[in-house]
Design goal:
By secondary structure, the chain is an alpha+beta fold. 46% of the residues lie in helices and 17% in strands.
Length: 357
């Protein structure tokens, strides 16, 4: 195995090379978690990786609670399946809550205020899905100050307290709902089982990857990483490449056609879930694709490498895909890019036009 094989295998394991996954819920289960900082873009991450999925399909999966958006792992927004949210929160919440104390003190959010906020939120969300401004309004009515970004911290605390998660889609906005109304699994995993499940899922869907990659992606402390690997079963294998050990599921090496291309969404798992991204993104191009303050831009993949940036500009009749490529492209590569743009357009139900800068 070499770096080219690593890039190919990651594209296949992450289901970017068309696989067998049919719907968003299956994909969330396969991936373990998908970073969802940009809600519009992560919907396309589901569309890119599943067969025949469009925007309405993803919104329906959110509305019906087949995929749940909440904060966990590092933490940041993630989409997860209902079956995984409880064990992942159990692994994440105690550590993340402890890390929030300094911010609580700065915002003046005492334990008493947070407890009162939980009571109010639990009451107002009974049988409802509400947007953030509606929740902030009700908290203020109850005497809780939500200014100075306090509302975001209160909602994060409620997520990590197993009280709330994403509700139904409102336009392109997230709403919040009670976790117990959206998720009915009992979460009956021991810590060892949950750790093993997470390691197995990550390395199978994201591998080949290193232990350092898994530690970054999961946010787990070092002491839990060893336990996770010990409890992942016999379905993982390791291989050494240039003195670095990579882990993955027991899959064959995949080959990617020279004329394959796709439009990868911002903050996509193919880029963000590894500490070393050089298998798909050269060091020279890294600063173009990832900003110094951690913004992961939408990128164009040609074969198995990042080859440029893209953005979608809406007009009345169509979506214009504006490209900023890092190199000249061949005729066959250009055709593949335009096919990838058509795929994005089909996901949105729009015609597309590609513009090269």
């Amino acid at each position: 195995m070499n770096y080219n094989d690593i890039a190919n295998q990651r594209l296949a394991n992450q289901q970017i090379i068309p696989g067998t996954i049919a719907d968003p819920k299956q994909l969330a289960e396969w991936m373990g978690a998908l970073q969802a900082q940009d809600l519009r873009m992560v919907k396309w991450a589901f569309g890119l990786r599943t067969q025949g999925t469009n925007l309405k399909t993803v919104d329906k999966a959110i509305d019906e609670g087949e995929i749940i958006r909440t904060h966990l792992l590092r933490p940041t927004w993630h989409f997860v399946s209902p079956e995984y949210i409880i064990p992942l929160l159990e692994l994440s919440a105690p550590r993340l809550k402890s890390s929030l104390k300094h911010r609580q003190d700065f915002l003046g959010l005492t334990p008493e205020i947070l407890d009162e906020s939980i009571i109010i939120i639990s009451d107002i969300l009974k049988g409802k899905d509400l947007k953030i401004e509606d929740i902030a309004h009700e908290l203020k009515k109850g005497g809780v100050d939500t200014d100075n970004h306090g509302i975001y911290h209160i909602l994060l605390w409620a997520e990590l307290s197993f009280i709330i998660c994403s509700g139904k889609v409102s336009g392109n906005r997230q709403t919040y709902a009670l976790l117990k109304d959206r998720v009915h699994q009992d979460g009956s995993f021991s810590k060892e089982e949950a750790l093993g499940m997470l390691a197995k899922t990550y390395f199978t869907s994201h591998g080949p990857a290193t232990i350092k990659d898994f530690s970054w992606w999961s946010g787990l402390p070092v002491r839990d990483i060893k336990i996770a690997l010990e409890n992942s079963g016999n379905e993982l294998e390791s291989i050494e490449v240039n003195k670095t050990v990579y882990w993955s599921g027991k899959n064959n090496i995949h080959d990617i056609p020279d004329d394959f291309a796709c439009l990868l969404p911002a903050f996509d798992e193919l880029i963000i879930s590894y500490t070393d991204r050089s298998a798909v993104l050269t060091r020279a191009d890294h600063k173009k694709a990832v900003s110094n303050n951690g913004i992961f831009r939408p990128v164009v993949i040609i074969r198995n490498q990042v080859a440029g940036l893209w953005k979608a500009v809406k007009s009345k009749e169509k979506i214009i895909i504006e490209l900023s490529l890092f190199r000249k492209v061949k005729k066959t590569e250009k055709a593949a890019i335009e096919k990838a743009a058509d795929d994005y357009g089909r996901f949105l139900g729009k015609m597309t036009e590609v513009k090269y800068s």
